[in-house]
C-alpha cells in the first residue's frame, strides 16, 4: 500500500514538473531565437545520471534550458542543486520546489559583519596569518568557516583560530586581477572591517543526493558554483566528484549490485547570452562512467579519487565548451573563424559554428607563443579595430563590390521601405508591450550593478541580465494583459458591441487578442530589425567620400590577406591536434574550392581601386542577410537526431564529420538552401 501511494505521489510530482516546465519553456523560447542541441544521444534512457553544466553564464536560465532539452530528447526529469539563498526567494523558490530542486546552503550566502578590524601579519611571509584589532575570533570564528573582505575583495576559509586576535587562513587572500589584488593588499595593510560565516555541514544534502541517485534518478549541478560572465571556466568545486563517488561507495557498503553512475558534461555555448532573441547551442558530451572500481578507490583514498575524477570532468567540460584566457582573445578567435569560413558561412549550422570556435581555441592555446601566431593575432586585432572605427561588421566587408550610386540607392530605398512596412505592422504590439520592455531593462540593469558590486569574479555581471528580464516579464506581462483585457471588456460591454456574448468570454477574447498581438509583433518586428541592420552599410556606401571609399576598399583587401593567413594557420597547426582535420577540411571536405589570391593579385586590385575611386561601393551581401533566423537551413540540422540515435557508439570525430559532411551537402545544392537564396538574393 505504501509503495502504491509513493508511486502516485511521484507520478503527481512529475505531472506538476511537466506543467511547470512547459510554462518555462514558453518563456525560454520567447527570449531565445534559436536553441540547438548536439550529442543528445549520449543521454542514457535510464539509470542514475549527473549532468555537470558549464559555463554558468545565465544564472537561472541555464537550468531551464538544460531541463527543457533533456526532457524533450530523453523524457527524463532533472533535479537541480540550487543555492539555499535562491531557494528562499519568492518566485525562484516556488518554481524550484515545483521541479524538485535540492537546496544547498553556501557559507558565502551567510556572511555577516565581524567585530573589529583585521590586518595582515607581516611577520608571516606566506600571507596566511591575520591579526585582529578589538576582534573576537575565538567566539565568532571557527575552523573551516569563512572570513571575507568588503567591496567584493574575496573570501577565505579559516584553517585554525589561535585566540581572539590571531587566526590562520587555509589560503591567503588572492585575486588574478591586478587591480583587485592591489585593493586587497592596501585594505589588509591599513586595517579593514570584515565579514564572517560559519562552517556549513552539508552531510544531509549528500545523503539526499545519494538516495536520489540510488533510485536511478537524474541530478543537475553547476560545478563552478555561482554564475559569472568570464570567458573561461572557474575552478570546479569538488562537490560533484564527491557526490558521484560517494553514491557508488554507498552502494558498495550496502552490499547491493553496483549501478554505475553516468556523469555527463554539458556545454552551454551562447551567442550574446544577455540579449533578447539571442541564440544558444547546448552540447552533451560522452558520459564519464563512475563504476565500482572507482568507488573502491574512493574508499581507499578519498582525496586522490576526488582529484582524479575532478580533473577528468574538467577536461571533458572543455571538450564541449568554448573558452579563452580573456575577452580579447575570444574576439580574435571568433574573427579568425569568420575569416576561415568566408566562402561557406551561410551554409554552416549553428552547432558547427560552436565546434569550429572550439577547435580554433584549442589550436591557439597550444601554439599561441609561436611568432606567426602572435603576428596573426596582432593583425586580426588591428582589423577588428578598423571595423569598429568604420562602424561596420566583417560580413559587410566580405562581399563588398563596386557599383554605381544609383543602383545602391535603389537597394537602400527598397530595403528601407520593407523595414518601414514590417515595423509598422509590429507597432501595435510594441506599444502594448513597451511597459514590460522598459521595466525589464531598467530592473535588469539595476540588478546587474548590484551583482557586480557583490562579486569578485564577474567582469560586467551580464550573467544576471537575461534572468531578470525574464522574471520581470513573467510577472508584469500577465498583469498588463489583464489590465488591457479589463479596458477592452468595459468598452465592449458599455457600448453594447457584442450583446449576445457573456462578459467572461469577452474578457478571455480580449486577453487572447492582446497576447497574440504582442507575439505577432515580436515575430514581425524581428524581421524588420534584420532589415534595419542592413541599412547602415548601404548608407555608408552612398555618402562615402572618395577618400573613404578607397579606405573601405583597402579594408577589403586587408581582409583577403588575413583570410590567407588564417587558412595557413589552420592548415599548419590544426592537423597536429585533430586527426580528422584533413578528412573534414581537405579537398572533399567542408572547405573545398576556397579561393586564394596572391599578394601580386591583391596589389593589382589596389591599383584598380585607386583608378576607379569615383565608383561607389555597393553591399551586395545585404541581399543575403538571413532574415528569418536561418530556420530553413537549421531545420535540416535538427534531423541529425535520427542519425545520432542509430550511431550512438561513434566517436567525437565521427560526430563532427557527420555535421560537416551534412553542411557540405547543403553547400552542394540542397533545395532548401536554393529556396533561401532565391528569397534573399533578390538584388542579383
From TrEMBL:
Keywords: Membrane, Transmembrane, Transmembrane helix. It comes from the Eukaryota. GO terms for molecular function: glycerol-3-phosphate O-acyltransferase activity; glycerone-phosphate O-acyltransferase activity. The keyword Secreted does not apply. GO terms for biological process: phospholipid biosynthetic process; regulation of triglyceride metabolic process. InterPro entries: GPAT/DAPAT, Plipid/glycerol_acylTrfase. This is Phospholipid/glycerol acyltransferase domain-containing protein. It comes from Spathaspora passalidarum (strain NRRL Y-27907 / 11-Y1).
Amino acid at each position: 500500500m505504501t509503495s502504491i501511494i509513493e508511486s502516485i505521489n511521484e507520478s503527481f510530482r512529475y505531472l506538476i514538473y511537466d506543467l511547470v516546465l512547459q510554462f518555462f519553456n514558453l518563456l525560454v523560447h520567447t527570449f531565445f531565437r534559436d536553441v540547438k542541441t548536439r550529442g543528445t544521444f549520449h543521454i542514457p534512457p535510464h539509470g542514475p545520471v549527473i549532468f555537470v553544466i558549464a559555463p554558468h553564464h545565465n544564472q537561472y536560465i541555464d537550468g531551464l534550458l538544460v531541463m527543457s532539452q533533456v526532457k524533450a530528447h530523453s523524457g527524463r526529469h532533472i533535479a537541480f542543486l540550487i543555492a539555499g539563498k535562491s531557494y528562499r526567494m519568492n518566485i525562484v523558490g516556488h518554481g524550484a520546489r515545483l521541479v524538485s530542486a535540492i537546496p544547498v546552503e553556501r557559507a558565502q550566502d551567510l556572511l555577516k559583519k565581524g567585530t573589529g578590524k583585521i590586518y595582515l601579519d607581516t611577520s608571516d611571509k606566506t600571507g596566511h596569518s591575520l591579526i585582529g584589532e578589538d576582534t573576537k575570533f575565538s567566539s565568532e570564528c571557527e575552523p573551516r568557516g569563512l572570513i571575507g573582505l568588503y567591496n567584493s575583495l574575496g573570501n577565505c576559509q579559516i584553517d585554525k583560530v589561535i585566540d581572539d586576535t590571531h587566526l590562520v587562513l587555509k589560503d591567503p587572500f588572492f585575486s588574478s586581477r591586478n587591480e583587485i589584488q592591489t585593493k586587497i593588499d592596501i585594505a589588509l595593510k591599513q586595517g579593514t572591517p570584515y565579514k564572517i560565516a560559519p562552517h556549513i555541514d552539508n552531510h544531509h544534502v549528500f545523503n539526499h543526493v545519494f538516495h536520489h541517485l540510488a533510485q536511478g534518478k537524474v541530478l543537475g549541478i553547476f560545478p563552478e558554483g555561482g554564475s559569472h560572465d568570464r570567458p573561461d571556466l572557474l575552478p570546479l568545486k569538488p562537490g560533484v566528484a564527491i557526490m558521484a563517488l560517494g553514491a557508488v561507495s554507498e552502494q558498495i557498503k550496502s552490499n547491493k549490485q553496483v549501478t554505475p553512475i553516468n556523469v555527463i558534461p554539458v556545454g552551454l555555448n551562447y551567442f550574446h547570452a544577455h540579449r533578447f532573441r539571442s541564440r544558444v547551442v547546448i552540447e552533451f558530451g560522452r558520459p564519464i562512467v563512475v563504476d565500482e572500481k572507482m568507488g573502491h578507490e574512493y574508499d581507499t583514498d578519498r582525496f586522490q579519487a576526488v582529484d582524479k575524477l575532478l580533473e577528468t570532468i574538467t577536461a571533458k567540460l572543455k571538450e564541449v565548451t568554448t573558452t579563452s584566457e580573456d575577452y580579447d582573445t575570444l574576439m580574435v578567435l571568433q574573427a579568425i573563424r569568420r575569416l576561415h569560413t568566408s566562402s561557406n558561412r551561410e551554409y554552416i549550422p549553428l552547432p558547427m559554428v560552436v565546434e569550429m570556435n572550439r577547435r580554433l581555441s584549442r589550436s591557439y592555446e597550444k601554439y599561441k607563443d609561436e611568432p606567426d601566431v602572435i603576428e596573426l593575432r596582432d593583425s586580426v586585432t588591428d582589423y577588428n579595430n578598423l571595423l569598429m572605427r568604420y562602424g561596420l561588421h566583417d560580413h559587410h566587408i566580405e562581399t563588398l563590390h563596386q557599383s554605381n550610386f544609383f543602383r545602391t540607392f535603389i537597394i537602400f530605398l527598397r530595403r528601407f521601405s520593407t523595414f518601414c512596412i514590417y515595423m509598422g505592422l509590429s507597432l501595435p504590439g510594441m506599444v502594448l508591450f513597451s511597459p514590460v520592455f522598459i521595466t525589464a531593462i531598467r530592473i535588469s540593469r539595476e540588478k546587474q550593478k548590484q551583482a557586480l558590486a557583490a562579486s569578485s569574479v564577474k567582469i560586467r555581471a551580464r550573467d544576471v541580465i537575461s534572468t531578470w528580464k525574464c522574471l520581470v516579464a513573467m510577472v508584469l506581462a500577465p498583469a498588463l494583459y489583464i489590465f488591457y483585457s479589463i479596458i477592452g471588456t468595459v468598452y465592449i460591454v458599455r457600448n453594447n458591441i457584442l450583446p449576445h456574448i457573456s462578459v467572461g468570454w469577452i474578457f478571455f477574447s480580449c486577453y487572447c487578442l492582446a497576447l497574440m498581438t504582442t507575439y505577432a509583433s515580436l515575430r514581425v518586428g524581428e524581421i524588420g530589425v534584420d532589415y534595419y541592420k542592413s541599412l547602415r552599410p548601404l548608407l555608408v556606401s552612398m555618402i562615402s567620400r572618395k577618400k573613404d571609399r578607397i579606405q573601405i576598399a583597402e579594408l577589403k583587401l586587408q581582409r583577403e590577406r588575413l583570410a590567407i593567413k588564417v587558412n595557413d594557420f589552420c592548415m599548419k597547426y590544426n592537423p597536429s591536434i585533430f586527426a580528422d582535420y584533413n578528412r573534414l577540411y581537405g579537398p572533399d571536405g567542408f572547405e573545398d574550392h576556397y579561393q586564394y589570391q596572391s599578394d601580386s593579385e591583391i596589389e593589382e586590385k589596389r591599383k584598380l581601386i585607386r583608378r576607379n575611386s569615383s565608383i561607389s561601393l555597393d553591399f551586395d551581401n545585404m541581399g543575403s542577410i538571413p532574415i528569418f533566423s536561418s530556420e530553413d537551413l537549421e531545420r535540416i540540422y535538427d534531423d541529425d537526431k535520427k542519425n545520432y540515435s542509430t550511431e550512438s557508439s561513434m566517436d567525437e570525430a565521427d560526430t563532427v564529420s557527420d555535421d560537416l559532411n551534412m553542411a557540405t551537402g547543403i553547400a552542394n545544392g540542397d533545395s532548401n538552401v536554393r529556396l533561401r537564396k532565391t528569397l534573399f538574393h533578390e538584388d542579383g
